[in-house]
Amino acid sequence: xxxxxxxxxFLVSLSLLSAATAAxxxxxxxxxxxxxxxxxxxxxNFTRQWSRDNGFSSxxxxxxxxxxxxxxxxxxxxxxxxxxYLFALENCYEMPVPAGHxxxxxxxxxxxxxxxxxxTREFAVSTLSTQIAMITPRTPGEFREMMVTYPGPNAExxxxxxxxxxxLSAFVNALEILPIDPAAYxxxxxxxxxxxxxxxxxxxxxxxDGVSKIYTDDKGHRQWFNMSTxxxxxxxxxxxxxxACTQLSVPPKTTFTGADVAPHYFPSFLYTxxxxxxxxxxxxxxxxxxxxxxxxxIVLHFAEIDATVTAAGARVFSISVNGKPVPGGDGxxxxxxxKAANVALFKTVDWQLGADESTVEIVLAGAKGASKGxxxxxxxxxxxxxxxxxxxxxxxxxxxxxxxALVVPEMSNWQxxxxxxxxxxxxxxxxxxxxxxxxxxxxxxAAELAGSVLPDIYLLKNLQYLNLSNNQIAGGVPQxxxxxxxxxxxxxxxxxxxxTIPQGFGSMPALRILDLHDNELTGGVPADLFPPPPGVVIxxxxxxxxxxxxxxxxxxxxxxxxxSDITIVQPTSSSISSTQIVWIITACILGxxxxxxxxxxxxxxxxxPHLPIEDEDNGTDGFYxxxxxxxxxENEPPYVATLDEEAR
Length: 648
Fold this sequence. Notes:
Shape: elongated
Largest sheet: 9 strands, antiparallel
Radius of gyration: 35 Å
CATH class of the largest domain: Alpha Beta
Strand order of the largest sheet: 1-26-22-29-15-11-8-14-2
Number of domains: 3
CATH topology of the largest domain: Leucine-rich repeat, LRR (right-handed beta-alpha superhelix)
Helix content: 10-25%
Number of strands: 38
CATH superfamily of the largest domain: Ribonuclease Inhibitor
Distance between the termini: 70 Å
CATH architecture of the largest domain: Alpha-Beta Horseshoe
Number of helices: 6
Structural class: mainly beta
């Protein structure tokens, strides 16, 4: 068991919903309701506005086949359409929303199963780069709900569905993102609440947002189900009583002190009925938790509505969880606590399950000597999910621009956060000291890319490798790439790149492999790459209009700029004296004369004609392509070697 934390949870051990303090205005009735797969906007039977499908990054729209299933025709319109995902592993809705606290509700209607069909689908839900839970919807009308604080404004709020390759495809029928009070439930933005159970344990109708036309008012946008409806929706709750429970209720319009006020806006209607037991009796609420070892937030709701209980001491009970008493859970007296009847009360328990525990058993036991047994009006159980690290906010936005510029196909799974909860295929990530991810590499060889290289990619300052080979990338080689100081490998080969080779690659401190072969580049090889820097493997082969190397025509012959036309930056200062310069020039002249003398002597001694030998590379750039192809085409482990070593 973990004690409650004032900085984390919304209340202390026992809490009173009091209207004595002036409350802020209720949240504005604003939100985003999306009919996934729907093609038009509409207003539902509760006068709520639904928008056509939008904000999705992938997937296909569809309509459920309800032929021969007349009972299904009465379901809400937003549950008759669907967005399903056949190809991508991770699929997201991305919503530009202001910073705030949000309730996110997702509807899943697997549709009526055919005879003999197993409709099992299992997939994960994630938001803010954090995997929240595994979903296995089986019953029409099922939904899942979470509460999240979105810090904004650097990126969009995303809701992602991560497919399980061994199960049927992921899908969603509708999505709601609704603002709630910033102080509701959890005030620490590093936690996300995932709801397992929300029921009214007393008798009466289910109610809340989109549930009942009679009692719809829940300013917190919640849905409260009675026990019968909860079972139909595969609720993991089981209730038992010793010796036997009874139901108490008061008129539906009864008002309760402390209800319907900020920050939680728990509705008065919730407290109009309660499940009670006789003196000394027990009420057991058992919840099966799909995720073992979870940290839970349990919220119990109470109100004294028994007209025969008018003084403290009549109804007293204790609360335990999994056989252990909870802090502040002994000697609970509703009249003493609320100082009157008809007062809305709630108690929270912050509980940590053991590593192998998957059930939580909440027992309300009547105290000895009390004339009345325990009573409870409602129960909520949440999983407290600690937010995981995200990709650096600036790199997060930049990677989406890179994705769009390269026209990355949907099936490449470049959705959601580039690094979390699972990294995009081909993307390398590293966790920094700031507890966020930075991008260290991109490898999308033969990925059917058809866009261009985003010049701003140089802002990925920690990028160490960039491999976009064997695609159909057009445009030029961005000059800005030379600013990637940690880049060791740049492979843009076998694309449709045009233009000249930018100068500056030879000055990149970490670069070891530069492969631009099989493109449509033109012009001369930059001075800083000819001859190549020591330890750098380069390949410009099969660019017919690249000129100026030892095996290519002079650039002037092709009408392009030659090596002589490229400015070579000289050192800003020199430590060589004028005397040394004279000696160097003299040595060079003597060397040239010696070579001429040797050649003349050989021709005189061994004079005989020689036939010209054709270049076996058929016009390619000699050892440039030879050295590079030894790495790229034979799939050998890359290593660093000078071109002179390769030539030997």
